[in-house]
Amino acid sequence: MKVLGIETSCDETAIGVVEDGTHMLTSIVASQVELHATYGGVVPEIASRQHVQAIIPVLDEALARAGCSMGEMDAVAATFGPGLAGALLVGWNFAKALAYAYEKPLVPINHLEGHVYAAWLDRPEVAEFPALVLIVSGGHSDVVLMEGHGRYRRLGQTVDDAAGEAFDKVARLLGLGFPGGPAIDKLARDAAKPSLRLPRAKLDRPYDFSFSGLKTRVQQLVREGNAAETRELAAAFQESVVDSLVTKAVAAAEENDARQVILSGGVAANSALRAELAERSRVPVLVPPPALCTDNGAMIAACGYYRWQAGDVAGLDADVAPGLVIG
Ligand code: KG4
Ligand code: ZN
Asked: In CATH terms, is domain 2-119+292-309 a member of 3.30.420.40?
C-alpha cells in the first residue's frame, strides 16, 4: 500500500511516498530556510506564498523519484495541524484537490504524531509499546507515552519556550544566525566540556520543561560582557537543555515501563542529545537520521498508513487545526 504524505506546517514544502507504513520510496523537501534567515525567523506570509510556488514541483519530483504515478497511490495523507494556519492551508487544500481528482481517501495527520513515525522508517526494529516519545521541535517539547498506534498520553510539555525555540533565541543572542539549533550544535561539538554550569529549571510537574529562565541567564551573561567565549556559552546552554530533556525522558520511560524510547522533531537532530539519550536510556532508543528529524513528507505518509488502516479519513470540507496538540 502506497501513501503520499504532504507537509507544509512551517517553512518546509515536503512530500514523501511510503509503502506499508515503514518503507520509504522517497522524501523530497524544499526548504525555505535561507529566505527566512534574512528576517531571523519564519515569516508566516512568506512561508505560505513559497508553499504555493513549490508544491507542484515538489510533487512532480517526489513521484518521479518514487517511480510511480498519482493513480498508483492508495491514499493521500497531509498535515492539518499544528502549525502556521496559512502554511497548513496550502498543503491541506492541495491534498484535498489530489484526493478529489484521483478519488483517493484523504487522511488527516497531526504533525507531532508524524514526527513519531519517522523513527520506524527503513530500519529493522519494529514498534514496541508502550513507547516513550520525546518530541522536541521549534514549536513543541512534549513527553508522550504512546500506548499503541494512535494512542497517546501526554505526560509533560514546556511551560514556556519549546526546546528548538530556545536554541533559536539563544543563537540569536550569541550572533549565530537562524536556525540556531544546527549552529549551536556545531559550535558546541568543537568545544571542550564547559566549565560554566547554567541552571536547570525545577518544576512542579515532573515531566514539564521550562527554558525561558535559561535563555534569560544567557542574555544576562552576554550583556554583562562575561568573559566566557561564545563557544563556551553555546556548549553550556546545550548541556543544560540536553540534561533536562534526557533526565525527564529517561525517568518517564522507567516509570511507565516503556519498551522503546523514540526521539523526534527538529531538535532530535542535535548530536549531543542523540548521544546522551542513547547512553542514559535502559531501553533501546530509536532516533531518525537527521534529515528525517526535521519536517518531511515521509513521516506524514508513514503515519498516514496507520491512520488510514484505522479508518481515519477526512471529508473534503475538513478544516486545518493550527493549535492541535498530541495526547
Ligand atoms: O521539527 P522542525 O523541523 O520544525 C518544527 O516543527 O518546529 O524543528 C525545527 C527546530 C528549530 O528550532 C531548529 O533550530 C531545531 O529544530 N534544530 C536543532 C538542530 N537541528 C534543527 N536544534 C538543535 N540541534 C540541531 N542539530
Ligand atoms: Zn516539526
From this structure: yes
